[in-house]
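assembly run, all chains below
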Amino acid sequence: MSKKPKLLWLQSLTCNGNSHSFFNHSDLFSILSHFELIHFPLIDTKYTLEDVLNKRVNCDILIIEGSIKHGLEKCGVDIATLIDYYANEAKYIITAGTCATFGGMFKEYDSDNINGFAFDRDKAIDNFSKFRKKLISLPGCPIHPKWLSYVLLMIANKKNIPLDDKNRPQELYSITVHTGCVRNEYFEWKIDTHGFGHKEGCSFYENGCQGPFTRGSCNKILWNDVSSKTIIGTPCFGCTEPDFPKERLFFTKTNMGIPQKMPLEVPKRAYLTITGVAKSFNIKRLERKLIEYNNDN
Amino acid sequence: MIIKKLIEKVEGEANLSFEFKDGKISNVDIIFNIYRGIEEILKGKPTRDALVITPRVCGICNHAHLIASVRAIEDGLKNNSLEFTLTQKAKDIREFTLACELIQNHIKWLYLTIYPYLERLLKIERSDNHTLKASYIANTITKAMAIFAGQWPHSSYAVVGGVTCDPTYLDTIQSLSHIEDAIRFYEKVVIGMNLDDYLAIESISNLDKLGGDFAKLLYLLGKNEFAKIGKSFDRFISFSDSHISKKAKSIITTVSAVELKFVKEYKQKDSFAKGVKYKNRYFEVGPLARAMINKEPIVKSLHKKYKDATLTRVYARVHEVALLLKQTKEILQNLDVTQESCVLDSKIDINNITGIGTVEAARGSLIHKLEVENSLIKSYDIITPTQWNLSNNAVAAKAMIGLDSEDIASFVFRTFDVCSVCTTH
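ok done. output:
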């Protein structure tokens, strides 16, 4: 008999994006080698989904993907009740993705009946007090594969994971998506990107980038090991936050030309002062194209 | 007699209910029962938000939804006489990332669905390496793609008028290395021969050169009657022009034009998935449909001998990977990074439009239709490829009727590359 922790991945109301995101992990097999995989939506194991639905398996770590919808059934089995059953049995519960954590995108359809496992948006619900000692929240739409592997390997190595007030790992969510963005120089000097499709400029001022007030390490631990939304000029949509998705995602709401929502915990006065000073310098290098492909030398 | 089966690991689950008469399947009901209401969620949202919402229809073909969505909005703007043309660069980058998504999809299907279930069905020795192979390609190809799209899954980098990225040659060269890795894998592991030599094969008589997992798969399928079973309507359709397809239909190998206005959805009893027909007839979509419409020589050669049997259908999907790999390499080698990435102002109003966007997704034609009134989405309609193939009485059902075992039928069902989350959305 294997003494490795038993890993069970259960899906509720989901697009499968978290499963596929995790499957992209470059070290998938070395990570999985620490566990006995009971069920994962993409990988064949010795158990079938029917075994899982009929409570014929055990688990030490429960990973939940998707929002919890009351009354949702698979083959006559109530999924919320089934998740509750395995949650009671597990030593650790990981809510993988914003849907499982806060309700996410699909909560928009039927807000009263669809929630995260332990949160209704930013509000803790019963499961939070019931399971808080073994709960780890991993919001993100989808989860970053390396955020999940960090949590799994910390568990496998019997290490304590420092968590914040929503049980998110501090090592992943104490910084913002802005941290490490390659456009930071443009943010420092308050230079907009002027539309889409430019290497130059920051997307915070006009294009709706939520990086400065969204918790997550997308620009510290890159996506697919190579890039991120903000690097390639797509705004951060705040997909790790309890209120994802907000509206008008490609526009920055402004007040007299200044973004309405400030970088996390930055007072508006401080921001305005810095902005005024930074903008007054008109730095030519940052106003120019970075690369001139058409010069002849 | 009725036998019910839960089909799992098909991007969610499907419930099949087989009705047997005289030992043979006489009817199959295909039931998908998880509904997320994406079209409802889109109602009342600002138009551009669709580019963030629609990818969440599906974890494996999210990118196809993004491209269909941006095309629908662009079509609507053009219908309102806004004149603009995407740069070749923006078009190429979109085609590139789309092709990458198809490649990971087809390879995952080959190694995570087809091989494991065929081995189980035939009770032959099972290989542990399938998952490893699928993981290698998924990882490699999504790297190549994320250099342009920022991430996979759930990128929203295609915006109205182009793309948000402005790549350098540093980016294209790095991406090309990943594509070359994927090509090397396909050559060494999947086809056991050089890609260009493989693509030069035009008839079954030259298929003896084929090696690798593909040759082994064809051998197993041929030996076990899959060259004879799984036949369906032999009618194919595609709604998007691309490297691998044309907007057309193929009936008894005659290719002719199609018009979107003849596509009609209808409600199905006991299922959240809607059915869809063209001029009141069922059509197959997907790699086999694209190859038949595009008159791909080797697929036509197989079709001539085996018609639309399971073997031909499986062949077309693995073969399409070769076409896509060659396409991705050529796009990167020729990409002119000096052109504009996006030709439209990011703030242009999208007030009152009606538009349709089509794209060839891994499983076939994907159609997005939207109506915008006073800058908000009034209605949004998504017709997914699996609705064409997997509705009751439609293509997959017909392919299973007449078989004498629900296990064999379930395998035939899987060869359509089922996507449960897309079907219901």
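Chain A touches chain B through 65 residues (CB under 8 Å).

The first helix of chain A runs from residue 17 to 23.

not gonna interpret more than that til we talk
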